[in-house]
Design brief:
With about 325 residues, the protein is of the alpha/beta class. The protein is about 50% helix and about 10% strand. It contains 15 helices and 6 strands.
Length: about 325
């Protein structure tokens, strides 16, 4: 399919940031001023029936502006970075053809990296993660880490011996760095970057200057989720009978902890603290990913005028490119 002639004339805008940094509010503020369509860059929002625990936009928010790549998969199905690049690239071209601004919004940094830089066959080595795995192996033994690998990547674990330390370490490293099993990288060829998307997209990165501000927001959000019936949502998913905790959908932050609490892995009284801790760890990884993107334009999301800064960037962008 030929790319629309407007691709070079119309820009694309992206808003990335850790969980609870205000991405949805920023996107909706832009949508009130400009003709945009939002492309979700979130590996959890793709799943139907997972609304509360993913902080999915409300029906009113979804109705206010066209959204894409939300509720496109059943929780039993996987959705890969390769599929995201394919779908997002087509959507960017289609939105341009409709004379609107593609607005990519989310916190799944692997998706952003895959779209802008291409998706490598494997994430690069991470010395800190490797050192942590070495320490765990010394404390628990490689068979215990093999058992962990079997939970997060059963396909790879099935072909490795419990004592194959080098390969177990690499497989767990890939999962911890990317959030995706090693086996998923073997199913597709290396994905080339979308040159048009990379060249025409301005990336706004919402990053806190004070981590305590973000931590407080994360706690408030998790409390709100619990109050809104998050545990009942997980119970409904479990009641289907065909889902299990090793699925990518059920490994999403919050859902994994709720599932384990319902299984009795730890007392239900610990769910809040464990869920908040896991979300804070996710935010830390997201910020690390963002800092590897030199093209980003940082807006401190805890600044009083953060929303105005985002709007100013969006306004200037459209003036420059149209």
């Amino acid at each position: 399919m030929a790319k629309p002639a407007t691709t070079e004339r119309l820009p694309s805008l992206a808003i990335a940031g850790p969980t609870a940094s205000g991405k949805t509010a920023a996107a909706l503020a832009i949508a009130q001023e400009m003709p945009v369509e939002i492309i979700s860059v979130d590996s959890a929002l793709v799943y139907r029936g997972m609304d509360i625990g993913t902080a999915k936009p409300t029906p009113q928010e979804l109705a206010a502006v066209p959204h894409h790549l939300i509720d496109i998969r059943d929780p039993l199905q996987a959705y890969s970075a390769a599929e995201f690049v394919r779908d997002a690239t087509q959507l960017i071209h289609d939105i341009h053809a409709r004379g609107k601004l593609p607005l990519l919004v989310g916190g799944t940094m692997l998706y952003f990296k895959a779209l802008f830089d291409g998706l490598d066959d494997m994430p690069k080595a991470d010395t800190q993660v490797r050192a942590a795995l070495e320490a765990e192996a010394q404390a628990k033994g490689w068979p215990a880490l093999h058992a962990e690998l079997a939970r997060v990547d059963p396909v790879t674990a099935a072909r490795l011996a419990p004592g194959d330390s080098q390969r177990i370490q690499r497989a767990l490293e890939v999962f911890r760095v990317s959030g995706h099993p090693l086996s998923s990288f073997h199913t597709t060829k290396t994905i080339a970057a979308d040159a048009d998307a990379a060249r025409a997209t301005t990336l706004i990165s919402l990053e806190p200057s004070d981590r305590a501000w973000l931590h407080a927001r994360i706690a408030q959000r998790f409390d709100a989720m619990l109050a809104a019936g998050f545990l009942d949502e997980v119970k409904t998913l479990r009641a289907r009978g065909d889902l299990h905790p090793d699925l990518p959908s059920m490994r999403c932050v919050g859902y994994r902890q709720a599932w384990e609490a319902l299984d009795g892995v730890f007392p239900m009284s610990e769910l809040r603290d464990r869920g908040i801790f896991a979300t804070r760890q996710l935010a830390k990884r997201q910020i690390t990913w963002l800092r590897s993107m030199p093209q980003r334009r940082v807006v401190h999301c805890d600044a009083p005028d953060a929303l105005q800064q985002v709007l100013q960037i969006a306004r200037a962008l459209t003036k420059e490119r149209t």
